[in-house]
Amino acid sequence: MSRVAPRWFIYWGPSGMVAGEAIIISITGGFLFGLLTASFHWWRRKVNRLPPWD
Hints:
Blueprint: H1 7-11, H2 19-47
Transmembrane segments: 22-43
Pfam families: DUF6404 (PF19942)
Keywords: Membrane, Transmembrane, Transmembrane helix
């Protein structure tokens, strides 16, 4: 295994998790984080009554 691999990549195998499951969890987590961040910025724009960036 390469020494530059992130720690999560090293530990998912011994935990019994299959590669596909690790990939799906990573993609789902990234999507939910992006959705939460976009929702927060949309809410702050409404609260501060800012116009769209058009």
